[in-house]
Write a structure and sequence with these properties.
Number of strands: 2
Distance between the termini: 30 Å
Number of helices: 9
Strand order of the largest sheet: 1-2
Radius of gyration: 19 Å
Order of helices and strands: HHHEHHHHEHH
Length: 277
């Protein structure tokens, strides 16, 4: 609770000056309902500062433990875990795309370079990649880092994974097009990310999975990302049954995510097979 209050306080103190400066250069965006890439990036930068500072302070002064003990040991294995996580999610999202395409649940309309100039494509892709790096860090530091481990220290690892994943799902109910089915899908994704932490006792693999999940889902394959429309390199129209495809929320809200999570879980197990579980 103290960490959450601290995060809101730091976010307010840090974000308000940033938004004032941003809107002074682009005043029209202040009166628009559209979430531009610039605003999204600014928001996640402020969120990153708030989450990171509040969690690090809580870990150091409330829990009396080191920051590294959250699962943030920096070494070559950390880099390999991040890259492996990104690679695993490419396979998962590619699988979802190919299944939906083969079943006629989506139609391919073209690639970004057939519609937009190359500078727009490069700027948009780079912006969203940076956004998703921040999002992966923020949400894993909070959910699989502070929430899961704090709950596990009071109860056990099983309930830490379950309760933190429930909170993770509920926090996404404020996203566009969210419902209880979407929240359930996000809960299952939370367990999937928790499995990566449990297998490695580090956050790096789950951070890589989170980054890759959002980037490949939205930017590369063109699906909505938890209800948000992201700049897509692949232009598609989803026409299949919403129960399976997830509709406007994205694959997390559809049954199609289940075999993808199983596939990803097996790849995580294989990648970590030589480590202590």
């Amino acid at each position: 609770m103290i960490q959450t209050i601290g995060a809101f306080f730091v976010f307010a103190c840090f974000s308000i000056p940033l938004f004032i400066v941003y809107f002074s250069f682009d005043p029209e965006s202040a009166f628009s309902n559209e979430l531009t890439p610039g605003l999204l990036l600014l928001s996640v930068v402020a969120e990153t500062f708030a989450f990171t500072l509040s969690i690090f302070l809580a870990r150091r002064f409330l829990d009396k433990q080191s920051i590294e003990s959250l699962g943030l040991k920096v070494n070559w294995q950390a880099a390999m875990d991040v890259l492996a996580g990104i690679g695993i999610t490419f396979v998962q999202m590619g699988f979802i795309y190919l299944v939906m395409l083969s079943l006629g649940w989506l139609t391919f309309e073209g690639f970004a370079w057939q519609f937009d100039p190359i500078n727009t494509i490069a700027t948009s892709v780079l912006t969203f990649f940076v956004v998703f790096v921040f999002v992966g860090w923020n949400e894993e530091l909070l959910a699989r880092g502070y929430h899961l481990q704090t709950i596990a220290s009071g109860l056990n690892l099983f309930w830490g994974a379950i309760i933190s994943s429930v909170v993770f799902g509920l926090l996404h109910l404020g996203n566009p097009n969210a419902n209880w089915i979407a929240a359930t899908g996000i809960f299952l994704a939370g367990l999937y990310f928790a499995f990566a932490y449990i297998r490695t006792k580090q956050l790096w693999l789950s951070i890589g999975l989170h980054i890759g999940w959002n980037f490949f889902e939205g930017v590369v394959f063109g699906f909505p990302v938890s209800g948000l429309d992201i700049y897509p390199l692949t232009r598609i129209e989803i026409i299949g049954p919403e129960l399976w495809t997830g509709g406007a929320f994205g694959p997390e809200a559809g049954l199609i995510v289940l075999p993808s999570l199983v596939m990803g879980g097996l790849l995580i197990w294989w990648f970590t097979r030589k480590r202590l579980a």
